[in-house]
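Try this one yourself first.
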């Protein structure tokens, strides 16, 4: 993660410089970049494309949004964060879970398809890296184990994102697990 964050930081600096402004990326900026790439540079709620200047420029138009509102879930994890059009977040979504929104079907198609694809990719990576009978070089075996574990971590993450996004209610068990 440290290596990935360093790459993200360098990329943020480079992209912002190309757009004509300098930035010293914070940890939150790195999270924003990660979510931006994860969401295919689009807002899952409005379908708007997110430009780098709309994310990091002098007047950002997109900010963090808690999929299940923090006031309802106490969850401030990356699994519960998305980038959202600031106006939509403040004036439409507010303290609602996605399934309560009027345009949930449209949002669900956009968001669900993407995360279902990511889940399928993780499952395929896990399957490809299972070591089956017979001799295998120890270094190759170790590499497959690492890849399988990494894919499992990503699978759990994407399943958590999808579960939060498709929730119909916030149960007390979920709230208590976040405390």
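Now uncover the answer:
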């Amino acid at each position: 993660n440290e290596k990935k964050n360093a790459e993200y930081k360098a990329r943020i600096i480079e992209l912002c410089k190309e757009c004509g402004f300098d930035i010293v990326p914070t940890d939150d900026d790195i999270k924003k970049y990660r979510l931006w790439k994860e969401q295919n540079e689009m807002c899952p709620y409005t379908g708007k494309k997110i430009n780098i200047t709309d994310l990091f420029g002098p007047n950002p138009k997109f900010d963090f949004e808690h999929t299940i509102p923090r006031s309802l879930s106490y969850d401030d994890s990356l699994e519960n964060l998305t980038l959202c059009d600031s106006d939509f977040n403040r004036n439409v979504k507010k303290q609602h879970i996605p399934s309560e929104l009027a345009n949930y079907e449209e949002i669900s198609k956009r968001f669900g398809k993407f995360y279902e694809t990511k889940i399928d990719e993780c499952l395929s990576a896990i399957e490809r890296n299972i070591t089956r009978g017979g001799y295998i070089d120890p270094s190759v075996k170790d590499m497959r184990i690492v890849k399988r574990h990494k894919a499992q971590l990503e699978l759990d993450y994407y399943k958590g994102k999808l579960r939060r996004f498709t929730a119909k209610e916030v149960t007390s068990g979920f709230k208590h697990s976040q405390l």
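Discussion: The longest strand covers residues 62-66. The CA atoms of residues 79 and 161 lie 5 Å apart.
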